[in-house]
Q: What sequence folds into this?
């Protein structure tokens, strides 16, 4: 057009965008610059253009796709979407497609494989024509897994039995009601049930086969596995209830008899379902059975003739029927013998020393057919007395009221060898058994500084007890020491341990019991008074001996006795000393004091009381040498040099600073200054002999 104007002429149809490359240069430039110019073309009439679209649908799910989401309007010239007409082509095997105007409903089959896809071709008209692909993919399966149901299956052992496991209560199919959905039976457990053998029947059912010779019912839980449209598995369970006759009783035992009947104990077998409702006895006579426990029955056959032998067996009964019979047992009725008398008499024994036991004499007389008498008590005694009459002494019988029961036995053989006997003529007698006097507790109590009282509890049967006491150190007292009839003791040694004894005797026996160990009187208290001492921190007067400096005791402790019967005892660093005294050889003294009734007996002493000080802990002495003198020509330089001139306690040497003063003709003052633990002490000065330096050539 001109040097600064260009013209672009668009065609009638797409494309609706373009780029022109224009070469330009400014006046004065020699190089050309290529400039790209973007061109957006607006159609004269709005024209719809379709773009590709991708959507994902999970198995068993559906999604409605707005086809208008694929439409764009080139050049920014938008038309009327309501005039657009959409068409789709293609119908994948894993999708079901329904189109309603501009909406496309796509449902994925429940058995569609995740990751598979189908491409639909979508075309639009009504504002030009355009076509683009619509890709629909199968997404991941839902996270919830399938689950089999749980149901009860009831059958009778031996009958035909089976059921469908699909569609039962508690079942869950993530794709229920969806195209391709539905659970199928994959497997059933074959080892989880001993009652019946389960097997899979088709894709939904199970069948039960009964083990050979199985008659007893039972219950079990059988697991099975289902599979959904996506091949995922879940489990379900069958609560199996098989009804059968009980197992035969394991035993029948005769337990009792009388003149016209026999009694049996029937022990049930270990298995029964439904539960046993009763037992039945076979054999002659009128028969009844009564439950006696969770697995036993008592059965009685009555109306029998004494001595006539019969065979009996038992069976268990439930709602289904009767079990097989137990093994048989032979039994018969029996008339028991009788006793005309039976007595139990307590025996007096003054030598008995057991308060818990005594003796009883048992006497009896029976009929001519009595061969022995079985005697039992309500406290567990059991014995058998031979013959139709006699007596026997029974020792070691618990004291107190006791009842003995005597049962005669006949010389006629008993029915059912080893079976129990039900007697009709047992005799009883009650007796009070007496043992030795009983002493339950014996306690020695201190009642004063020199007195004590003996207290006891028990049953002395009206006898007069005697008492004795003895020092613990002299051994335990015996009844030979028990010469007093009074439980009160006097003139005892204070703070020593004693032990006492109580002795008692009667027609039924004799007893004794030792008391506890008891210390007489209250414990000795610690001494009172002033339990501190004080050391001078200043050096004592040196006028008498300037070669010696001492830190002496300023005040001693003044402990006071708080008990008039005691004396003071001291100890220092764990060693007893006769009186208060300090050890100048060590700094720590650890002095203690106590008061004792008898210092030789530890038990008569109080606890130790510490004697303390707030200042220096012991006396200190510094002594200048009489033989070694200070020499200017050979001045002391080391600690060892000074130690040869001045005696200082060993525990203080490292804390002493020694300095020499100005000498006179024969002596020189030596001053010691303290530090560390000894800095509370004032400086100390001693006079040391002095050797002046030589004079002249």
A:
């Amino acid at each position: 057009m001109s040097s600064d104007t260009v013209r672009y002429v668009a065609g009638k149809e797409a494309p609706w965008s373009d780029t022109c490359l224009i070469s330009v240069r400014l006046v004065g430039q020699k190089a050309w610059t290529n400039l790209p110019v973007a061109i957006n073309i607006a159609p004269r009439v709005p024209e719809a253009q379709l773009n590709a679209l991708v959507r994902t649908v999970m198995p068993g799910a559906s999604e409605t796709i707005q086809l208008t989401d694929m439409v764009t309007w080139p050049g920014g010239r938008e038309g009327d979407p309501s005039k657009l007409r959409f068409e789709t082509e293609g119908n994948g095997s894993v999708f079901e497609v329904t189109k309603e105007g501009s909406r496309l409903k796509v449902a994925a089959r429940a058995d569609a494989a995740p990751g598979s896809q189908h491409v639909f071709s979508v075309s639009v008209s009504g504002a030009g024509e355009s076509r683009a692909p619509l890709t629909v993919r199968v997404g991941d399966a839902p996270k919830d897994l399938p689950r089999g149901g749980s149901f009860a299956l009831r059958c009778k052992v031996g009958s035909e039995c089976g059921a469908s496991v699909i569609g039962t209560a508690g079942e869950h199919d993530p794709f229920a009601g969806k195209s391709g959905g539905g659970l199928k039976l994959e497997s059933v457990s074959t080892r989880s049930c001993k009652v019946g053998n389960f097997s899979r029947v088709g894709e939904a059912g199970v069948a039960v086969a009964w083990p050979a010779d199985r008659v007893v019912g039972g219950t079990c839980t059988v697991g099975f596995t289902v599979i959904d449209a996506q091949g995922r598995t879940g489990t379900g369970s069958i609560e199996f209830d098989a009804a059968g006759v009980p197992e035969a009783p394991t035993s029948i035992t005769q337990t009792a008899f009388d003149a016209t009947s026999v009694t049996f104990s029937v022990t049930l077998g270990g298995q029964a379902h439904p539960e046993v409702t009763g037992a039945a006895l076979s054999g002659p006579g009128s028969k009844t059975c009564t439950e006696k426990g969770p697995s036993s029955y008592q059965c009685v056959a009555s109306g029998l003739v004494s001595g006539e032998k019969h065979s009996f067996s038992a069976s268990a009964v439930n709602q289904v029927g009767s079990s097989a019979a137990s093994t048989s047992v032979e039994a018969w009725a029996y008339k028991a013998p009788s006793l005309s008398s039976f007595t139990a008499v307590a025996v007096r024994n003054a030598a008995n020393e057991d308060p818990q036991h005594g003796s009883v004499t048992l006497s009896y007389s029976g009929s001519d057919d009595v061969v022995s008498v079985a005697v039992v008590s309500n406290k567990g005694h059991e014995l058998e007395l031979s013959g139709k009459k006699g007596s026997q002494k029974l020792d070691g019988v618990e004291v107190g009221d006791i009842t003995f029961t005597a049962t005669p036995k006949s010389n006629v053989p008993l029915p059912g060898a080893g079976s129990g006997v039900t007697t009709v003529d047992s005799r009883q007698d009650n007796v009070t058994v007496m043992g030795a006097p009983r002493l339950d507790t014996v306690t020695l109590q201190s009642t004063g500084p020199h007195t004590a009282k003996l207290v006891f509890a028990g049953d002395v049967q009206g006898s007069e007890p005697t008492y004795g006491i003895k020092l613990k150190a002299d051994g335990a007292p015996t009844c030979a020491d028990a010469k007093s009839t009074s439980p009160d003791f006097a003139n005892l040694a204070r703070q020593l341990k004693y032990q006492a004894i109580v002795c008692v005797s009667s027609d039924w026996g004799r007893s004794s019991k030792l008391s506890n160990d008891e210390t007489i009187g209250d414990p000795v208290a610690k001494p009172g008074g002033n339990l501190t001492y004080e050391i001078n921190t200043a050096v004592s007067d040196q006028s008498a001996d300037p070669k010696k400096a001492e830190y002496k005791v300023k005040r001693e402790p003044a402990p006071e006795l708080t008990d008039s019967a005691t004396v003071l005892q001291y100890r220092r660093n764990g060693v007893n000393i006769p009186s208060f005294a300090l050890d100048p050889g060590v700094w720590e003294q650890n002095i203690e004091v106590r008061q004792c009734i008898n210092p030789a007996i530890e038990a008569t002493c109080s606890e130790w009381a510490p004697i303390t000080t707030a200042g220096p802990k012991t006396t200190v002495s510094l002594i200048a040498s009489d033989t070694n003198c200070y020499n200017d020509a050979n001045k002391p330089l080391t600690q060892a040099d000074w130690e040869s001139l001045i005696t200082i306690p060993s525990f203080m040497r490292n804390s002493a600073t020694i300095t020499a003063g100005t000498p006179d003709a024969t002596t020189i003052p030596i001053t010691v200054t303290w530090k560390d633990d000894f800095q509370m002490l004032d400086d100390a000065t001693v006079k040391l002999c002095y050797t002046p330096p030589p004079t002249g050539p």
Q: What stands out?
A: The CA atoms of residues 341 and 567 lie 79 Å apart.
